[in-house]
Design goal:
387 residues, alpha+beta, Chorismate synthase, AroC fold, 4-stranded antiparallel β-sheet, 11 helices, 32% helix, 20% strand
């Protein structure tokens, strides 16, 4: 089974991931993988860190002549900012007198609950790992998964539907694909130019006020075959796994599959997607309120995930907090940060969805090599088509 672990701190030497269970003979392109890292660093409202880091991955194991070996794939992304943080983040020795602990936790961050959980006095010991910088290496993992999905004609897309109170009209899946170059070129990943301009103006106002903004992004997966996931156990339901993966992204506070909460206000006759059969295409739906998933299993329709991102908790005009040393009122610590991360979070969302789909695909097809997976896939498609 495919799985991965990440390691590393925001201002440590590097971020690392080890992926286990990849099929052998999967072609990987350095340019394609690095392009996903580049996409994550874009977006209107990003902070100064993105001007420092030029994320590029190194492969330390599991790849030879651009093809996977079936052994663990180790990915490393160097943190260029570590050059300025070596004294503060030294792995050995005593704390220098010049390095002050961070004792004023930020509301909305892992700072205080993490410090209480682990019995830590310096919340930097928490915030360095809790930081969204960790998503850089998760995007790298998702980029590998995306390369696997391409061989099965599965495509992953995203766009931003709202930032703050500014919302764009919903967009059909076919329109997203048709206009994807425009979405990629948008500073806020929004398919509507008027809405994008209002979003950027809202980000400018928030930045001037020392505030931050959240929003909503959508991830779509097209070409997903029916039959991924399972109904037989709670932890095998693909909608649950997708929701968990998307909720694990820093600052995400809500996930909908398909119509989500809106479906709760409608009668069943307006919620459930009627089933049809066509000889050349097989089973199909004319609507997709379920978002491509029924009973924890993909049904062959486009996968639709809508994700809510809260404003990030580092404000340049800090909120009220408590100094953990003095136990007295204080203002929260201020870290270098962004004003709005929603466009970048959408790219991270693509990555975690790509990973979960790749895992589910391998669970369904088995196979130790890409060629074996593809052969099994062709057999499965014939089975679904009744041939």
């Amino acid at each position: 089974m495919m799985r991965y672990l990440t390691a590393g701190e925001s201002h440590g030497p590097a971020l690392t991931a080890i992926i286990e269970g990849l099929p052998a003979n999967l072609p990987l392109s350095r340019e394609a993988l690095n392009h996903e890292l580049f996409r994550r660093q874009q977006g209107y409202g990003r902070g100064g860190r993105m001007k420092i880091e030029k994320d590029e991955l190194k492969i330390l194991s599991g790849l030879r002549f651009s093809r996977t070996l079936g052994s663990p794939l180790t990915i490393q992304i160097i943190n260029r900012d570590y050059d300025s943080w070596q004294e503060k983040m030294a792995p050995f020795g005593e704390r220098p007198g010049t390095v002050e602990p961070v004792t004023c936790p930020r509301p909305g961050h892992a700072d205080l609950p993490g410090a209480l959980k682990y019995g830590l006095q310096d919340v930097r010991d928490v915030l360095e790992r809790a930081s969204a910088r960790e998503t850089a290496v998760r995007v790298a993992v998702g980029a590998v998964a995306r390369e696997l999905l391409k061989h099965f004609d599965i495509g992953i897309y995203s766009y931003v539907q709202a930032i703050g109170e500014v919302a764009a009209p919903p967009v059909a899946a076919a329109e997203v694909v048709r206009n994807y170059e425009k979405i990629e070129a948008s500073p806020v990943r929004c398919p509507s130019l008027p809405a994008a301009q209002k979003m950027m103006a809202a980000i400018d106002r928030a930045k001037a006020e020392g505030d931050t903004l959240g929003g909503v992004f959508v991830v779509l997966a097209l070409g997903v075959p029916a039959g991924l996931g399972s109904h037989v156990h709670w932890d095998r339901k693909l909608d649950a796994r997708l929701a968990g993966a998307l909720m694990s992204i820093q600052s995400v506070k809500g996930v909908e599959i398909g119509d989500g909460f809106a479906a709760a206000a409608r009668p069943g006759s307006l919620v459930h997607d009627e089933i049809y059969y066509e000889p050349h295409t097989g089973y199909r739906r004319r609507t997709n309120h379920a978002g491509g998933l029924e009973g924890g299993i993909t049904n062959g329709e486009p996968l639709y995930c809508r994700v809510a991102v809260k404003p990030i908790p580092t404000l340049t005009k800090p909120l009220a907090s408590v100094d953990m040393d003095a136990r007295k009122p204080a203002f929260a610590a201020v870290e270098r940060s962004d004003t709005c991360v929603v466009p970048a979070a959408a790219v991270v969302g693509e990555a975690v969805v790509a990973w979960e789909l790749a895992v589910a695909l391998q669970e369904k097809l088995g196979g130790d090599s890409l060629q074996e997976m593809l052969a099994n896939y062709r057999s499965y498609r014939r089975q679904c088509a009744g041939r």
